[in-house]
Amino acid sequence: MEKRARFKSAWLPYALVAPQIIVTLLFFVWPAVQALYQSMLLQDAFGGYSEFVWFDNFRTLFADSNYLGSFKTTAVFSVLVAGLGLSLSLILAAFADRVIKGAAVYKTFLIWPYAVSPVVVGVLWMFMLSPTLGIVSHWLHYVGIDWNHVLNGRHAMILIVIAAVWKQVSYNFLFFLAGLQSIPKSLIEAAAIDGAGPVKRFATIVFPLLSPTTFFLLVVNIVYAFFDTFAIIEATTQGGPGKDTDILVYKVFNDGFKGGDLGGAAAQSVILMTIVIVLTVVQFKYVEKKVQYA
């Protein structure tokens, strides 16, 4: 017989959900409405003058080749961060799940990067890959690679991808490890007795059972690549060289706070928010159909 919570008071259920509703209204709905309103204004840098221009800011953006180019940059960056981050984390989690001696130390070292702030992550990798002082760039020079992310746009993209993946790998690792440890060992042992090799066991048993975790992390990593990598780019490349690492979230800051185009920056934030919402809905509508919930 199904048990349900029953409230004797009519207002108690509303009181219990009120804090979450208030937080959502204050920190999501209200800022989103404000951004939508400001995206239709033409304002000076100090906010002293504003004119309602409807959708002119959006028309200006889509006529700007630099803004359209940032879509491609963001797409490449987000795919690399999500793809490499999930793949590397799954491999590390699979190894951690098999470690017996020193497992606690191994897992602790893998979790530590998540405690480091994005700015520190950016500065750390910027120094290690510095063209003149970086130890990693010196190693690359010995194998014939002249690393210079200050002048080479491809090198700059590789730098921010490495930093972003390294920052997020601990988060992904924790969820993958928890997912692996929740899989009954009897299923894997039965497949091994039937003659299935390690690769086949992983492809036919482990990975399908990890699909709910993988789907969740896919959504989280896409949102992370679009929003939470701003500090890494600000600390390393600042969108350069040229516009080669100027992803959408950094362009909002660059145009709004440095360029003084408040209305255009608000329009960019509305477009960015719409893109992330659409991507999330598409993932839940189409990708989730392939998720196997045990």
TrEMBL record:
Transmembrane stretches, start-end: 12-33, 75-96, 108-136, 156-180, 201-227, 262-282
Entries under InterPro entries matching the protein: MetI-like, MetI-like_sf, UgpAE/MalFG_permease
Subunit architecture: The complex is composed of two ATP-binding proteins (UgpC), two transmembrane proteins (UgpA and UgpE) and a solute-binding protein (UgpB).
Record-stated family: Belongs to the binding-protein-dependent transport system permease family.
Keywords of the record: Cell inner membrane, Cell membrane, Membrane, Transmembrane, Transmembrane helix, Transport
Origin: domain of life: Bacteria
Membrane-topology annotation of the record: Multi-pass membrane protein
UniProt-listed Pfam families: BPD_transp_1
GO cellular component term, pick one: plasma membrane
SUPFAM superfamilies, alphabetized: MetI-like
UniProt protein name: sn-glycerol-3-phosphate transport system permease protein UgpA
